[in-house]
Structure formats: structure tokens, C-alpha cells
Design brief:
Layout: E1 6-9, E2 14-20, E3 28-31, E4 34-37, E5 42-48, E6 52-62, E7 68-79, H1 84-94, H2 99-119, H3 123-128, H4 130-146, E8 150-161, H5 166-354, H6 356-379, H7 396-408, H8 410-418, H9 422-428
Antiparallel strand pairs: 1-4, 2-3, 2-5, 6-7, 7-8
């Protein structure tokens, strides 16, 4: 049964120290865990890791001045489980010991160092500079307790007292000094207060005068600025009223513009409706009038085309007939012209033979015809109104003379045209 294997468990506030076989010549430390242990060949020790509070009393300890005082300090200590080295020191020092014995050892160590520090300091140093005293006790005790595997977490000086009234005397002397200083300070304060009061009154009066002056100046500046501001406000109001009127006019103009836009839209809609009506009427006209008219037009164009073809054919036939008639007439004219030319040639030959006599003979034959042609228009006249200046003949003899004058000018005309003087030739004949 000695070889039965057991399992041991520890919480986070304690540590195991397992020693014996299978440990390699040194113990094993387990902090807050479990382990398998053979009871007959291995040993398990539990070490507490809780924080322990020590109230260290040091009664009637003589200081460096020989004054006995009593001191009470409070320390927080614990076995350091985070360091395997310190666990080894603790296992060596406190293995198998209860917590009370560990506390007693720590207390004795702290109390001894507290006494030693008290013997090296004066009452005033301990009383007035508690922080330095606590620091020295903490540093000295930490070194020794570290070698035991214990860490000093904190140390504070809780109380300092004496049985011979030394601290009370220090207090009385200090109290008297404080009272003296208080009386002196009170007198000084009263003196300074009186002086300060006088200065304050003077400064008050000066400040009052300055303040009154500033008030008057400020009031004047206020009135001036108020007048300026009133002017600006009135100007701004006038501008605002003008701007309002202008804006109202703009709004009214905008409203009228919108109304015009509405009217334009309505008119455009009416135009669109009218355009649609026009298109409808055009379609109706196209279907009822234009299409039948185009059909009639087409029919008439075809009839006209047929008539035109007929006319063209008839014209072509007429043209051909005219051309034939023209050719026949041209041939007849040509034959007649040839005959007349032969006759004229014969006359020319005769004129060459008769020369001037022939010309005279021709002119004599022609003169009656010329006279008939000159008098011809007179025979067609219904009424003649004669206007005379009073010189020469009047009436019908005037008309006869006019005809005779025309006939008398003919020899000169012939002479100019032919070079033959008919009058001379007639007188010679």
C-alpha cells in the first residue's frame, strides 16, 4: 500500500514543495496547480501565499537624544510565490511550520529593525518626517525578509507617543511660538489692514472719480454712437422699405410674367388645337375635294392630251399641206419673177435705147397716178376746216393749190433721184 499513487491539489493562494525520489536532487515547486505524488518515497509541503498583516509595537525605545518613545507600525508581508528562488528560501525556513510561527518570525524581524531605526533618529525626525522613517524601516527589513523568501509589500508609521511629555513640550513650545507669531501677525495684519484700508479708500475715491469720468465719457460716446446707429437704422429701414417695394414690384412683375406665360401656353394649346383642326379639315378636304378634283384633273388632262395630240396631228397635216402650197406658190412666184425679170430686162434694153426719152415718157405716165394718190385722202374726207392768215387764196382753191404745189415739186424730186430734168426735156420736145 506504500506504493499507492495520490494526486494533490493546491489553490492559487498556496504552493506545493515536492521532495524525494524522481526530483533530480532538488525539490519541485508548484504554485496553484496539481501533482502526482508517491507517499512513501516523496514528501509534499504546503506553503501559504496569503498576504499577512503585522502590527509592530516598539514600546519605550530610546532615540538618539535619549528620549524614550513608543512607536506602532503596520506592515504587509507575504511569501513571494512568483520566484522559485524565494519559494526555495521559504521552504527551507518555514517548511512544516504553521502560519502563526511564520507571522511571529516576521514580527520579530520587523520589530528589531524598527527599534534600530528609532535609536538612530531623533524624536523630531521621527515625528515630523514619518515618510523617511517608514522608508528606512522598509528598506532594512526587506533585505532580511528577502533571505527568508518573504517580500515586504508596504510599511507605514501608525503612531508615535511618549510617556515623559516630550512630544507635549514640543507641542507647547510650538504652540507658544505659534501664538506669538499669531499675535505679531495679527498686529502686522491690523497695521497692514489699516494702511491697506486707507490706500483702498484713496484708490476707491480715485477709482470713483475715474469711474464717474468714464461713465460720463461712455455716456457721451453712447449718445454719439446711438445717434449714428439711429441714422444707420433709419437708413436701413428706408432701404428695407424701398427694397420691399422693389421686391413687391419684382414679385408683381413675376406674377404678370407667369400669367403671360400661362396665356402663352393657353394660346399655344389653342394654336395646336387649331392646327389639328386645320389638319383634320385638310384631310377632309383632301378626301372630299382634292382627291376627286385630282381625279377630274387627271381625266381632263387625259382628254386635253388627246385633244392636243389631235391638234398636233391636224397642225402637222396642215403644215405639210401649207408647205406643199408654199412650194407651189414659190414655184409660181419664181416663174412669174423670171417672166418679170425678162420683161424688165427688155425694158432696160429699151431704156438704153431711148434713154432720157423713155424716162420722160415713164414719168408722164406716172404723174397722173401720183396725183390720184395725193388727192385720194381728200376724197375720203367728210369735213375740212380751213384756217387762213388772210394772205393768199382761201376756201377750196386753197386745197387745189396745195395739191398742185405737191405735183409741182415732183420734177425736182425726179431730177434729184435720176439726174434728168423733166421740165427742160418737156420744153425741148
Amino acid at each position: 500500500m506504500c506504493f499507492n499513487i495520490g494526486i494533490v491539489v493546491c489553490g492559487p493562494n498556496e504552493a506545493f514543495v515536492i521532495s524525494g525520489m524522481f526530483q533530480g536532487g532538488k525539490p519541485t515547486f508548484i504554485n496553484g496547480g496539481r501533482a502526482i505524488v508517491c507517499p512513501c518515497i516523496q514528501t509534499v509541503q504546503r506553503i501559504p501565499l496569503n498576504t499577512m498583516t503585522l502590527e509592530v509595537h516598539s514600546p519605550r525605545v530610546y532615540t538618539s537624544q535619549g528620549v524614550p518613545i513608543s512607536v506602532v507600525g503596520t506592515a504587509q508581508v507575504k511569501i513571494n510565490g512568483s520566484s522559485e528562488e524565494m519559494l526555495g528560501y521559504a521552504a527551507e525556513q518555514f517548511g512544516g511550520k504553521p502560519v502563526d510561527q511564520i507571522l511571529n518570525i516576521c514580527f520579530e524581524t520587523m520589530e528589531g529593525h524598527q527599534r534600530a531605526i528609532m535609536g538612530n533618529m531623533s524624536v523630531e525626525e521621527i515625528y515630523r518626517d514619518r515618510k523617511t522613517f517608514s522608508k528606512k524601516v522598509f528598506e532594512v527589513a526587506s533585505v532580511d525578509l528577502h533571505n527568508m523568501g518573504i517580500a515586504v509589500i508596504s510599511y507605514t508609521l501608525k503612531d508615535v507617543r511618549d510617556e515623559v511629555g516630550y512630544l507635549a513640550s514640543l507641542g507647547q513650545a510650538r504652540t507658544a511660538q505659534v501664538k506669538r507669531d499669531a499675535l505679531i501677525g495679527e498686529a502686522e495684519a491690523k497695521k497692514e489692514s489699516t494702511i491697506a484700508e486707507a490706500l483702498a479708500e484713496e484708490q476707491r475715491m480715485e477709482s470713483k472719480l475715474v469711474n464717474d469720468t468714464e461713465i460720463a465719457r461712455s455716456k457721451r460716446d453712447f449718445e454719439l454712437k446711438k445717434a449714428i446707429y439711429d441714422t444707420e437704422v433709419n437708413t436701413a429701414k428706408a432701404e428695407a422699405e424701398m427694397a420691399y417695394s422693389l421686391q413687391a414690384a419684382k414679385v408683381q412683375a413675376k406674377i404678370k410674367e407667369e400669367e403671360m406665360q400661362v396665356k402663352v401656353v393657353e394660346r399655344m394649346q389653342n394654336i395646336a388645337i387649331q392646327e389639328q383642326e386645320i389638319m383634320r379639315r385638310e384631310k377632309e378636304l383632301d378626301s372630299k375635294v382634292r382627291k376627286p378634283a385630282e381625279a377630274e384633273k387627271y381625266r381632263l388632262e387625259k382628254i386635253a392630251e388627246a385633244e392636243r395630240q389631235k391638234v398636233v396631228l391636224e397642225a402637222e397635216a396642215e403644215a405639210e399641206a401649207t408647205a406643199l402650197r408654199g412650194e407651189a406658190e414659190a414655184y409660181a412666184i419664181e416663174v412669174k419673177a423670171k417672166a418679170e425679170a425678162e420683161q424688165m430686162a427688155k425694158k432696160a434694153d429699151a431704156w438704153k435705147e431711148y434713154k432720157e426719152a423713155a424716162l420722160v415718157d415713164m414719168m408722164l405716165k406716172v404723174l397722173p397716178k401720183v396725183a390720184a394718190e395725193v388727192a385720194g385722202p381728200l376724197s375720203e374726207t367728210n369735213k375740212i376746216t380751213m384756217v387762213a392768215t388772210g394772205d393768199g387764196p382761201i376756201g377750196a382753191s386753197r386745197v387745189t393749190n396745195e395739191v398742185l404745189d405737191i405735183m409741182g415739186s415732183l420734177p425736182d424730186t425726179v431730177k434729184k433721184m435720176t439726174g434728168v430734168d423733166i421740165t427742160t426735156r418737156m420744153s425741148q420736145a
